[in-house]
Amino acid sequence: MSTTDFKVPVCIGSFIDGQPHLGTGTRLPILNPATDHTVSEFSEAQADEVGLAVTGSRRAFEQGPWPRMSVDERQAVLRSIHQVLLQNAPELAYLECLNTGIVMREIEQRHLRRAALNFSFFADYIGQSSDAVYRQTQGYTTTVMREPVGVAALIAPWNAPLALSSMQIASSIAFGNTCVVKPSEQSPLAVARMIELLCEAGLPPGVVNLVNGRGPVTGQALVTHPEINRVSFTGGTETGRHIMASAAQNLVPCTLELGGKSANIIFASADLDRALDGALLGIFSNNGQQCLAGSRILVERCILDDFMARFVARARALRLGDPMADCTELGPLASRAQMNRVLQFAQQAPAEGCTLLAGGQPAGGFGSGYYVQPTAVLAPDNRCSVARQEIFGPFATLLSFDTEDEALAIANDSEFGLVSYVWSDHLPTVTLMTEGLRTGVVWVNTPMMRELRAPFGGFKNSGVGRQSGTACETFFTEEKAITVPTRAHPLRRLGV
Ligand code: NDP
Q1: CA separation for the pair 332, 339 (Å, rounded)
Q2: Which of 3-17, 149-163, 204-218 has the lowest mean pLDDT?
Q3: Does the pLDDT of residue 472 top 80, yes or no?
């Protein structure tokens, strides 16, 4: 099928109770970052429209079949969604690529497989989870059941819209909840189509509703709506702080999956060819825009010169281009603002003593597209802005260290603590590092391996809460303890 077979909607609005809903809100453009051209537009949901979506989700929760279905029935729908997403992968990939500039090959091979897997993973999970029973107190049996919490607000970012929003959706609805999704204003196109497909796959109307609009308008109205029971947010740390404070007014629990400035630590004892491949993938895949990017590359001093030369040569050789093209390795950044932000870091780095090793300029030959050259700097120490702030682009900061303790100290000297990477074939080094690193995930001799069964989330300013089967079950369900006596115990009689 050719990409021209896919229809790009003229305007997208909300999706409420299984129906498109085009409100009267401000119309805002949806851009193609590879060209800066407008490819569609969306209608921004104001507070009243957000209210309709939340009410629809509440109705589906209170009166609809979804929370009352047997686990078998819910599993069947989740597995059907898995199939339908894969069947429609070419269309979803096209829309995602058009609107985000993420390289098509990565969307097809990583994002869409992951989006489909999220639903089948939670289908499997709910088929195996069990209630707890306590019988230690003689004469009583206490069963702890888990019930869905109600309506979840899901706020999704722009750097991997399908993969990340599908995780939020699957992990909330699998346990019988309903939800309202708000994608980023920058990247609503593919998520809107995915949510239509959920209904086509058999999800009852109203279980997943969609609103579109800017964070401070639509997102804020959603997070503060009194009928919301949980907020799941993926995005920047500052926004996360604000969202948590807003949700706290209604005593609504949040999970926050935030940013990172992850250390990718390369020892001389590593397989250096693999470490080099891993370091390049860690910072340049997904156009450098990923929370788990290995953006601080710490290299043992005795191999620094050699590693740096090879890293820079490969970075310069990266194939920039049309994200739809098969040969492209690096596409445009998601927005002009993000491009300018990345370039500003490159411009300021020398004043802080950094050596620019590669890139640092807009990439020529792409018209008005938001392309940045693959960039690498050598920082004198970990105090520079490029070693401390999340840049969120194809921008590697290299640092050197002499000892394991120094590597640990540099890696942990960060406001963030999402993931870290260790490259070494020396077991005592690996053990020391994995025990000492203050991050939610440590990857050893592998660039990224997301094990959905294991918790994912950050220490420190990288987040609150975790994502995994059990972590999501805990977050998206309420516990209820039911105590039943096993015989008629004598009761103290009052007023006799
Ligand atoms: P945001 O954190 O603003 O975007 C994430 C989501 O939050 C978007 O849907 C956004 O909507 C929404 N949002 C913004 N403000 C509010 C609000 N007041 N109430 C409810 N929702 C809101 O990302 P930025 O564009 O500001 O990115 C800044 C930095 O965050 C990046 O440079 C990067 O460092 C980091 N980031 C990290 C991500 C991750 O995966 N951990 C993902 C994205 C960004 P809208 O976009 O429509 O305004």
Answers
A1: 8
A2: 3-17
A3: yes
Over residues 400-445, the pLDDT tens digits come to 999 999 999 999 999 999 999 999 999 999 999 999 999 999 999 9
Atom 27 of ligand 1 has which residue's CA nearest to it? 236
Per-residue model confidence as pLDDT tens digits over 221-248 = 999 999 999 999 999 999 999 999 999 9
Which sign, positive or negative, has the C-alpha torsion 204, 208, 213, 219? positive
CB atoms near residue 248 (< 10 Å): 12
Topology of the domain covering 3-258+462-481? Aldehyde Dehydrogenase; Chain A, domain 1 (3.40.605)
161-173 helix and 112-128 helix, angle to the nearest 10 degrees = 10
Q: Catalytic: which of 179, 291, 384, 472? A: 291
Exposure of 139 by Cβ count < 10 A (0-12 exposed, 13-18 middle, 19+ buried)?
Answer: exposed
Whether the per-residue pLDDT at 323 is higher than 80: the answer is: yes
Catalytic residue among 257, 329, 390, 404: 257
Residue at 491: amino acid letter: L
The verdict on domain 263-444 having CATH code 3.40.309.10 is: yes
Report how far ligand 1's centroid is from the alpha carbon of 67 (Å): 30
Ligand 1 pocket list (CB less than 6 A): 155-159, 182, 184-186, 214-216, 219-220, 223, 234-236, 239, 242-243, 257-259, 291, 390, 392
Please determine, for residue 381, whether its predicted confidence score (pLDDT) is greater than 90.
yes
Give whole-number Cα distances, 331 to 70, 111, 378, in Å.
44, 15, 24
Where in the chain are the domains? 3-258+462-481, 263-444
List Cβ neighbours of 411 (8 Å cut-off, separation of 6 or more). Answer: 263, 265, 296, 298, 420, 437
- Closest-CA residue, ligand 1 atom 6, reads 157
The answer to whether 291 is a known catalytic residue is yes
